[in-house]
Structure formats: C-alpha cells, structure tokens
Design brief:
alpha+beta, Heat Shock Protein 90
Length: about 675
C-alpha cells in the first residue's frame, strides 16, 4: 500500500495516494509493524509538501517517521525521510537543522554508493550555504557535485549542477556569470525545445530565476519574453506563488511599482499560508522596496522591519543587508538622523561581512577579477561625523584587500615557479627513462644477434660431420645426395638466421630438409610426421627462427640413435589464444639409457644447440615481459614402466605479421 501511494503520488492522483498511505499506516499500526508505520508517515509528509507545500505539517510527520525508524532495525527509507525533513526545515529557514539532516542522509547515501542521493544532498547543501551567505562553501559543494555527476556521465545531472552554480552566482551578484550557467543548461535545445521546456510545469524555479537574471542585467525585454511562455491559468498555488513574486520583482526593477505591488502581496499571502520562510523574507523586503519607491514610508518601515526580523532569525545576511539599507534610506529621507545613522552603521558592517564571503565565492568559482567593487556611493547623511566614519570604513577596506591581493600575487608566482620546477624534473626523468629503455633494447638485440650467429656454425658443423662420415664409409652416392640437400638446407638456414622472425611455414620447410638428411644418414631407420591443428595458418604465424631444430636434433641423437628397430618423430602444432604450442615426440630409448650405455658418443655429444636455445629464450622472454616462451621435457614410459621416448612441449608467443622493415632493424 505504501508503494501504491508513492506510484499514485508520482501520477499526481492525490485522492488515491492519500487513501493508500492512510490505509498503510492503519494496517501497520494494528500489527505494531514499526517500519511500515515509518514509511507511511514519511509518504504522508511527502504528499503534504508535494500537493500542498505544507512545510509545517510535513515537518511534524517526518519527525514522527524518524522516531519510528530509530526504534527499528530496518532502516530502508530512512535516507529519503532525512532528505525530505532537511528540505522542509530549509524551506522554513531552519538552516542549522537542515544542515544536520542533510549531512545525515548524505552519509547514508554515500555508504550505499547511491550517487543520485549524494547529488541531491549536495544540491541542498549548496542552497543552504547560499541562503546563509557562505558562498565559498556553496561553490565548493557545487563543484563536488559537478565532479560526481561528470563521473556518472548522466547529462541531466550535469545540467542541474549548472543551475546550482547559476544560483550561487546570483547570490554573489555576478549576473553575467549566472547567465552563462543558465545558458549552458539550455544550450543543447532547439528553439522549439526551449519553448517547450519553458512551458513545462516542472523546473519553475529555474525558469523564473533565468528570467530574473535578465531583469538584474536591465534586459527587461528578454526577461518579459521568458515570462510570456509560462501558462499560469492552471498552475497550483505552490507554483503560482513563485511566478507572482518573480514577475513582481520584474516590475519593481523596471520601475512599474503599481503593477509590482499586487503581485507581491498575493505571492506573500500564499507563502505565509505555506510557511515558506525563505520566500516570505524575500517577498516582504520586495514589498518594502515597492512602498519606499511609492513614498509610502509608513508601510515601507513596517515591511522592512518584518523582513529584518526574519533575516536576523534565519541569519540570512543578504536579507539583513537589504533591510538595513532600506531602513536607513527611509529614515534619512524623513530626516531622522539618529535612526538613519544606527541603521547605516549596521548596513555597512553587514555589507562588509557579506562582501567578504562574496569575494571568497568568486575565488571558489575561479572568477576572481583582481579587485573588489568599492562601496556604493551611498547618499551621505548631513552630519560630518557620519561622513568621516564612512571614509574610514572605505579606506580600511581598500587597504585590507590591497594587502590580500599582494599576498595572492606572491602566492600565485610561487606556485608557478614550483610548477615549472616540477615539470622540468619530470621531463628530465622521462628523457632518462627513454634513453635507458632504448639502450636496454639495443643490448638485447645485439645479444640475440650474437646467439643467432652461434647457431649457424653449430648447425653447419653437424652437417659437415655427417658428410664426412659418408665419405669415410666410401658411400659417394649417399654423400652426393646428402650434400645436395645440405646445400638447400644451408641456403634456408642462412636466409632465416638473418631474420628475427620467420613464418611457421619456412620453419617447417627447413625442418623437413633436416629430417630428410638425418634419415638418409641413418639409412631410413626412423620416420617423421608433421601435424597442424585447426586454426594453424603456417604462412601467417611468425616465430623466432631455429627454435625447434635443436629439440628435433636432440630427439634423433639421444633417443632414436640408440633404439633397436624403427623410430618415429612427430611434430604437432596447435594454437591456444596467442600462443603456438609445439610438441616434439620421439619413441626412442628416453633420456636415461644413453647415459647408462657408456658410449663415447653419449658422453661427448653435448647439445650445444639446446644450450644456445636456452640463452635465446631467456632474451626473448626479457623482451616480451609478462608473455613467456616456455619449454619442458617429459620422459615417456610404457605401461610396464620402461622408458619409451621423450616429449618436448614448447610454447611460443607468435606474431601474425612481420614487415621487412622490422626484419632489417633487428638483423
């Protein structure tokens, strides 16, 4: 029922919303279900504000809801209740309580990582600081909200931050900057969209403030143009009052006092009915200004004093300043010098305090222009004592801000020097790091070239030994065939050894020639097979040259050479993501047997190729950082446990393209 009430409230169906909220509270009360009672009271408070702008009633309901939440462990909905309670306290100028409750629900939303709730709290913080004249805090809060909304990427949240900044700029009376923020809010709309948005019933505060900025800039035609788009015939009182006061201020600023007064008085009546303290004090002072302009001093004093009392109660310094100024002007016009002097002194003190905070606000908004506007040329009271005091106040203010400006200039220069020093240090570090990395890369390239150069004579030495064996055995035909294949193979080896990377197709071709030569030397005592798995494009995969041949050589010399009967070597290739996995399997006698046989060959044939290959892999791994080229050797056994061969597993990080320029730079 609470949820139904909320849905009907969103649809502006007042009767249904109130019906279900009342029923929810009754049912929860009968069951002594505290959380349900708390939610129902919170929903009733929302409706008191939404439908009637009854802030007093809403405050009572919200406080009762908070009391129930404190008595139950289920806190779901407490943050929203604090949010509404903070708003109704703010509307009644209870700023201290509003700050406390805003901080409570900001903390809850922050703990639950609810950015939308956090932004809502920051917006209310901003408005409270604005009303209290604490502009630097307001700008800092608004900028925090802008940073959070920028991270979320929500364009509408970002736009509403512009509205908060615009309101703050109105508070520090920087109307050109305020206008730029409001224009940023509306900038991505076409003319038709802008008119449609202005005609919409929501955002009435933003629409009225947008028009008010033009009034303060004396652009009354532009202000009237925006007022003309709002249809007031169907506006509820809670929205109509905003239009009445805003339009009344337009007539006041443009000098049409007879038109301003009825609108302001009607707006004040609705504000008072709703107990909207912020708008009451604003409207009361507007009415006092209007009566003063009409030379109705008795009514002007009455409303000015009421505005001053409300401003003092709320500690709203902007309103206090305006009330003091109006009162001293009225008494000065009436010739009551003592009263005029009293209110003038209060006006100057309040204005100075407010000007200080306005300046801090300009700093926070990064809009400080390098000077403070001097005190307005007020109408001087005839007594010489007041003239001297006014001059002293101006002189002291000027000296203070000149000193402050000097300190700021020194501080800015120091920051610039520090920044340049840090940038210079960082650039030097980057240059040194780049030089070190380049030297390391060149060192690795030179070491790799040296190892590839060692492979060539090692491989040629093995082949020449084989040819020599054929000659010594008086087998000229075998020697001739072997020499023919050797010439083809050596051409491939010489070509490939100049390159840092070759295609798998070229590597396999070289391995076939090598295996054919070894078969010829060993009288076809073994066979070999090549197996390529799915996805292996031998022409499109590039690997370092001569990585596989030393392992094949090991399989023949240490495995198949000692085997009785026919042997076999199988080379399998398959791709796993960006790694090429190669398995070299022989069915020879395994690694332990040659060592135990005690033959001279077993002891003297140390695989220089494997040693060089290990060194090459170490360098390749250093270049690839986290991507490792790995290999391991497994001893194979048959079911009876007898050694039956070896398996070499080699994993290589391959490339899928390699240009001739890269080959030239690394060869």
């Amino acid at each position: 029922m609470n949820e139904l009430s909320l849905q009907f409230c969103d649809l502006s169906m007042k009767d249904s919303a109130e019906k279900y909220a009342a029923a929810a509270y009754k049912e929860a009360d009968q069951q002594k279900y505290l959380h349900g009672m708390a939610e129902a009271l919170s929903q009733q408070a929302n409706m008191a504000t939404f439908f009637y702008s009854n802030f007093v009633g809403a405050e009572k309901l919200n406080r009762a809801s908070v009391d129930l939440y404190r008595r139950t462990g289920n806190k779901r909905g407490l943050a929203a209740t604090y949010s509404h309670l903070a708003y109704v306290c703010f509307s009644q100028t209870k700023y201290d309580e509003a700050l406390q409750y805003t901080n409570d629900y900001y903390t809850l939303y922050k703990a639950s990582l609810d950015t939308s709730g956090m932004l809502d709290a920051l917006a209310l913080f901003t408005q409270i600081y604005l009303k209290r004249g604490e502009f630097d805090k307001g700008f800092n809060t608004a900028q925090t909200a802008q940073q959070i909304s920028s991270k979320t990427g929500d364009s509408m949240e970002i736009k509403f931050c512009f509205l908060d900044l615009g309101s703050l700029c109105m508070g520090i009376e920087d109307y050109p900057l305020a206008l730029s923020y409001y224009q940023a809010f509306f900038q991505h709309f076409t003319r038709a969209d802008s008119i449609s948005l202005l005609e919409a019933e929501d955002l009435i505060w933003a629409k009225m403030e947008y028009a008010e900025i033009y009034s303060h800039l004396n652009k009354f035609d532009s202000a009237l143009y925006r007022y003309s788009f709002l249809d007031t015939s169907n506006l509820p009182e809670k929205d109509l009052r905003i239009f009445l006061v805003s339009k009344g201020e337009y007539f006041l600023l443009s000098g049409h006092y007879d038109k301003a007064l009825p609108l302001l008085l009607r707006g004040l009546a609705i504000h008072s009915k709703l107990n909207d303290g912020n708008e009451i004090v604003r409207t009361v002072l507007d009415i006092a200004d209007t009566y003063y302009a009409q030379h109705n001093e008795r009514q002007a004093i009455r409303f000015a004093r009421e505005g001053l009392e409300l401003g003092l109660r709320a500690r709203a310094r902007q309103r206090m300043r305006d009330a003091y100024k109006l009162l001293y002007s009225i008494y000065d016009r009436r010739g009551q010098k003592d009263s005029a002097y009293f209110y003038y002194r209060s006006y100057i003190q309040t204005k100075e305090s407010l000007t200080d905070d306005q300046t801090k606000g300009r700093f926070a908004a990064n809009q400080y222009l390098g000077k403070i506007e001097l005190l307005n040329n007020e109408k001087l009271i005839s007594q010489q004592q007041l003239k001297i005091q006014d001059q002293q106040l101006k002189r002291e203010s000027l000296i203070r801000w000149v000193l402050l400006g000097f300190v700021l200039v020194v501080l800015l220069l120091s920051l610039l020097l520090l920044r340049n020093f840090l940038l210079t240090r960082r650039n030097e570090k980057l240059v040194n790091d780049n030089i070190r990395k380049e030297l390391q890369h060149k060192t690795s390239e030179m070491e790799m070239q040296a190892l590839r150069a060692q492979m060539n004579p090692h491989f040629i030495f093995n082949c020449l030994n084989s040819i020599n064996r054929f000659i010594l055995k008086n087998e000229p035909l075998a020697a001739s065939d072997y020499l023919t294949q050797f010439s083809r193979l050596i051409r491939l080896v010489l070509n490939n050894s100049k390159k840092a990377w070759i295609s798998l197709e070229d590597e396999i071709e070289m391995l076939r020639l090598y295996l054919d030569m070894e078969r010829l030397r060993f009288k076809d005592s073994f066979t070999y097979d090549f197996v390529c798995g799915d996805g292996v494009d031998t022409s499109g995969l590039f690997i370092p040259p001569l990585l596989i041949q030393p392992f094949v050589e090991n399989a023949i010399w240490h495995g198949l050479m000692h085997k009785q009967g026919s042997g076999n070597v199988t080379l399998s290739f398959f791709v796993d993501r960006d790694m090429l996995n190669c398995s070299i399997i022989d069915n020879g006698v395994g690694r332990p047997v040659p060592v135990q046989s005690g033959t001279r060959l077993s002891h003297t044939h140390k695989s220089m190729g494997i040693r060089i290959t290990r060194d090459r892999l170490a360098l390749i791994n250093r270049e690839l950082n986290d991507e490792k080229v790995l290999f391991n050797i497994e001893d194979l056994v048959d079911p009876s446990g007898t050694p039956s061969g070896t398996r070499v597993n080699l994993s290589i990080k391959f490339r899928q393209s390699y240009s001739s320029e890269e080959e030239a730079s690394t060869s």
